[in-house]
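STRUCTURE:
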């Protein structure tokens, strides 16, 4: 949405001489600079997941800017004076709009699926917390999620030795919350009580 808005502002600002080109540059930079900087950070830290995600976002933003800019020029009827050149530009602009739209949809579909899966995973994490809290109560110290070969191992850390057959059932319940959950383990922290009378 930011990229589309930037493309609209940038194209209109470029067509309208009353608007400073500085505003156009700022509008475009807002959409393109953050993902470019993130790509650099990801490469610098050898974190290819972050770099790849930022590259996808940069590509989406670039196509969105190109698409919205072409639409604005089309609406404002910015074209050469000669009829022959006008027809060539019109065909090129139309093909650019179609190609940009198709590319944007091709990228948006897998990104949308990934975003939805991420939302489901975060929701499952909250439910895992809630399930642990409902069963173990105040004994829950924390719930950790560690990535392991594409799966998330869930570790419930408790402040007691409360373990029985029902505990195993709760572990299975947590594991079934999301297909990306791997193993579910329960760890106990040994607590020491001090006698203040001595």
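SEQUENCE:
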């Amino acid at each position: 949405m930011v990229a589309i808005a930037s493309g609209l502002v940038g194209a209109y600002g470029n067509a309208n001489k009353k608007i400073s080109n500085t505003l156009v540059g700022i509008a475009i930079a807002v959409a393109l600079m953050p993902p470019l900087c993130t790509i650099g950070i990801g490469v610098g830290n050898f974190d290819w997941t972050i770099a790849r995600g930022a590259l996808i976002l940069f590509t989406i933003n670039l196509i969105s800017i190109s698409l919205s800019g072409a639409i604005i020029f089309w609406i404002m009827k910015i074209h050469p004076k000669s009829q022959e050149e006008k027809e060539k530009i019109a065909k090129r602009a139309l093909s650019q709009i179609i190609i940009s739209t198709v590319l944007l949809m091709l990228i948006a579909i897998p990104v949308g699926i990934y975003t939805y899966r991420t939302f489901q995973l975060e929701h499952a994490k909250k439910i895992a917390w809630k399930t642990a809290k409902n069963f173990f109560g105040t004994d829950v110290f924390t719930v950790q999620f560690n990535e392991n070969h594409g799966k998330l191992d869930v570790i419930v850390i408790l402040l007691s030795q409360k373990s029985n057959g029902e505990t195993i059932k709760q572990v299975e319940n947590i594991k079934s919350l999301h297909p990306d959950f791997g193993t579910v383990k329960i760890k106990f922290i040994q607590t020491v009580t001090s006698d203040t009378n001595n």
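REMARK: The chain has a mean pLDDT of 78.
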